[in-house]
Amino acid sequence: MTLSRRTLLTTGAAAAAGSLLPRRARAARDVITVTDVAGRQVEIARPVKRIVLGEGRQLITLSLVHPDPVSLLAGWPGDLARQDKVTYGRYLETFPAIAGVPIVGRGSEETFSIEQALATGPDLAILSGGYGPSLRSKETLDRFAAAGVPVVFVDLIAKPLDNIVPSLRLLGRVLGREDAAERVVQFHESRAARIRDRLAAAKPVVPTVLMNAHAGLSECCNAPGRATIGAFIDPAGGYNIAVDVLKTPFGPISLEYVMGRDPDVYVGTGGQHLAGTGGLVLGPGVDAAESRAKLQRIVKAPGLADIAAVRRGRVHGLWHLFGNFPLNVLALEALATWFHPKLFGDVDPDASLKFANETLLAVPMHGTYWVSLDGRGR
């Protein structure tokens, strides 16, 4: 999603009108004006009680700000239940009412039904443009505007590290949960700043990195550039070799190119979506030994087995969904310890995850989200 004022203009005057609330609502409720991550000024009448989501995984972000996020759902797409059954099951156990929330799409722009969304009677729509309606979805935005339903955009995909803080603060303001949002912001900023400031002071040698996305799903190598999960490499002190050849945010790079660059560090990304494919499986409910065994098999492939990263044992696995996850600073910590183990010897992403589970998350994360062949990692 491109979050710019130029793109905003394409939504037309009707989308702008969506920020104007009915006079009766303005008189009866606390009306605030917020600026979303797309730079749009939107009027919201609080308290917000019925939210429709453009992407099901946004529920996890809501859970960091509100103790019962399901109580706010008027409607949502079915992508979380379809793509991450373990996490959905844990939310279902904690919040049984989630089973009755109307489904308004499958987690893509094409499947999102504005008719079904409006039928839920929302007083706010939260969109991201990642896997649902975006700023380019003119008809959807116009229909929300005509119905008097304000729309705000958050972003954890296009610029995940840049936009996580404004997204959290936006949700805190909209829901009247500013203190809760600020606790998560502090968690993120204190850890990100430690890595940023230490790298700036030490100026270490920057290792070259191959990030093999959806590792094992296909032949080497599918790779991100500086978007989505690839956005974490530079801030963690690495150099992504894919950015020198990719002309798109995500795409294939050849094994010959990888062997020629001979990267210092290998990071495969994976998730439960790769279960049964031979790919790298990471995420909630996954055992570390299983992930490590799959990672070992992947890097034994001809060509990959010969690069410096594998020869020297600098082989790691990272949960792919950190590229669209509100606690993405955990991925930043893991990568920093892999790229600069001496400089960040005191950084412990496991301890950070434990703190988040105990103090921030409505539904704790238990599983394997990072792993290393040298035995470190969960």
Number of helices: 15
Average pLDDT, rounded to a whole number, is: 90
Task: Please give the CATH architecture of the largest domain.
Answer: 3-Layer(aba) Sandwich
Domain count? 2
Helix percentage: 25-40%
Number of strands: 15
**What fraction strand?**
5-15%
The shape, in one word, is globular
Provide the gyration radius in Å.
21 Å
CATH class of the largest domain reads: Alpha Beta
Q: Which fold does the CATH topology of the largest domain refer to?
A: Rossmann fold
Poorly predicted runs of 5 or more residues: 1-27
Structural class: alpha/beta
Could you give the distance between the termini?
Answer: 32 Å
Strand order of the largest sheet: 9-7-11-13-15
Q: By CATH's scheme, which homologous superfamily of the largest domain applies?
A: Nitrogenase molybdenum iron protein domain
Give the ordered list of helices and strands: HHHEEEHEHHHEHEHHEEEEHEEHHEHHEE
How would you describe what is shown here?
Helices cover 37% and strands 15% of the residues. It is an alpha/beta fold and 378 residues long. It has two domains: 5-176, Rossmann fold; 205-372, Rossmann fold. α9 (160-175) packs antiparallel against α10 (178-202). The chain is globular and about 60 Å long. The model is unreliable at 1-27 (pLDDT under 50).
